[in-house]
Amino acid sequence: MGAHHPLTGLPATSGVSRLPALAVKIGNNDTRSLPQVGLEQADIVYEAHIENNVTRFVAVFHSRVPDKIGLVRSARSSDIDLIGNLNMPYFAYWGSNEGVGAEVREAESSGTFVGRSTSGTGQENFFRDDSRGSSPFNGFLDAPRLLRGATGVEPDPVFDYGPLPASAVPAAGVRWSTPGRQIDYVWDYPSSRWLRFQGGVPLLDADGVQHGADNVLLLYIDYRVSDADRESPQALTTGNGDGWLLREGTVTGVTWGRPFVANAWHLADDDTGEIVMLVPGTTWVALARLGEGKILDASEAAALTG
Questions:
Q1: In this structure, what CATH number is given to the domain that contains residue 231?
Q2: Is residue 7 part of a domain?
Q3: What is the pTM of this model?
Q4: Rounded distance between C-alpha atoms, residue 17 and residue 64, angstroms
Q5: Are 74 and 95 in contact, with CB atoms under 8 Å apart?
Q6: Whose CA is closest to 94, among 110, 111, 79, 112?
């Protein structure tokens, strides 16, 4: 079978990196956050609610590590549990408020991750690019420099990869509607990927290429108010819930389970209970509130793609 990258399931033709995973907090607040840099090379991209009814990314890099990642933004309480199943990754973020900082330090002391921040250890790995405007919308990470000093081991897989579920049915795409944002993924036959739209227009990388993924998971989770920041919602990513897996132009209804922070994501068919697997490749995960998701029909997808 040969070696495979743990966070994509793709063949590791040059061998599996023995470095730990790198999770980076990346901004998506408004147009000043665009375009993100390096996001297209992430193995897994998590997206969660933050304050002001918008969303922000946690991008996880392992099989590929870009030279420059940004725009790097501050940590939130949601991040701590979310990356706790990556076998002690490095977590890079642009500071935090005092309450979240205390939560991060507690998680570090318990071995959840290794933190690197502009307000603590590893400040030399971050820099500002004035061509991108003013603070806080111009912060970047020199990822190779950070990882040169990294210790630890590679992550364990957090998803299962395998054949298309028997219950999968064709789907044109999926929409995640939040109070402040409309996010769409539309199946693109030429590239065999789910292309991302934001606010009805393509979300582009720094080279003008539209972001896309091989898998899209929309998982319904609960949120509560963060103890560390009363203005910030905190994603609860342990427990169980419902959702959808979109792969290869299809959708499958799933239930997800993750009893403890260190556990991988377990996905099962919501009708049969059989294990549901992802197609090898990149995965973007929408951490949605119940009722925020919708499967798109062909006409709705066509309205986005023109």
A1: 3.50.90.10
A2: no
A3: 0.97
A4: 9
A5: yes
A6: 79
